Amino acid sequence: MQRSYKLQQTGNYQLPDLEDNEAELYFQSHTNIFFIISTIFQAGLAKLNPRQTCAIESAARSNPEWKVFVLFVSATEFSFFNSPNIVPLLPYPNVFLRRVNMTTFGLGSPVEEMFERGALNNSSFIVEHTSDVLRLLTVYKYGGTYLDTDVVVMKSLDELPLNYLVSEGDGFVANGIINLQASGVGHTLAESMLRDVAKNYSATEWAANGPFLVTRILRQYCNVTEPWHMTREQCGCQFGVLPPDQFFQVFYPHQSWYFEANRTREVMERMKGKVLTHLWNKLTNGIKLKKDADAAYIELARLYCPNALWSVKEYF
């Protein structure tokens, strides 16, 4: 198989360690996309759900010149039989499935001591908090764009400026989409965020190490309180917070519109010209959707993640 997936005696394929294959990364380049899968898997076998696969496939299709890294925290292997939603990604030469070694990944970084004492293992929200910290650490080490797995990417990320986050529209900056470069302002901001989480890490508050943290740092950096004032001009011209409608075209409490036939035309109209859209997984993951439904999400899947859609039997 391509991209260094070695067949094991178990019949599964090994996930290479990201740090053992760092030459794959475009060092200090903006053309890396990272997804982080921090779910804890039994027997170390990697799995994705169809919507996660859709996010990854859409990023790869829309950015063929970029490298898309899917980083698994607890998994070490995948298989064709037991990891069916991984299979649709394998035809894409720019998708790399990799394992993060939590023992070594934080070495030499501001969160080294935090990792050594196993702070993340004591979290009340271990999956979310692990992802919150790893996304910052990954862009700190390598530079590029972190994306949540509940997005659909519709156009090249090259259309966006370097070094950005996006406002959630509720007075906070979101941490679900992060572009920070491995040098200059991007690296400085990533380092500041990591130093903050190392000092103020909360194991009990869901958003403390995510939106609350990045908003706090950016208020200091941009010297303004409200995210909509964190423009590139205000923040020193090399970083800015994008307005919510760049990625959040459908706001709470209307997140179900992606799944409703009578809202399809309106939602698709809002997608025109946009680079990506965020689908509010925390609020929508329980909504069942047939693969042939007349819904905006299915229309987006047909256009931007066809392999993910075609691979499911009935529900997407």
Topology:
Layout: E1 13-14, E2 32-37, H1 50-62, E3 67-72, E4 77-78, E5 95-99, H2 112-116, H3 126-142, E6 144-147, E7 151-153, E8 164-167, E9 173-180, H4 184-200, H5 211-222, E10 240-242, H6 264-271, E11 276-278, H7 281-284, H8 296-304, H9 306-310
What does this structure look like?
The chain has a single domain, classed as Alpha-Beta Complex (Spore Coat Polysaccharide Biosynthesis Protein SpsA, Chain A), CATH 3.90.550.20. It is built from 9 helices and 11 strands. It has helices at residues 50-62, 112-116, 126-142, 184-200, 211-222, 264-271, 281-284, 296-304, 306-310; strands spanning 13-14, 32-37, 67-72, 77-78, 95-99, 144-147, 151-153, 164-167, 173-180, 240-242, 276-278. The longest helix has 17 residues, at 126-142. The chain is globular and about 50 Å long. Keywords: Glycosyltransferase, Golgi apparatus, Membrane, Transferase. This is Alpha 1,4-glycosyltransferase domain-containing protein. It is a single-pass type II membrane protein.
Please give a quick description of this structure.
The chain has 316 residues and is α/β, with parallel strands linked by helices.
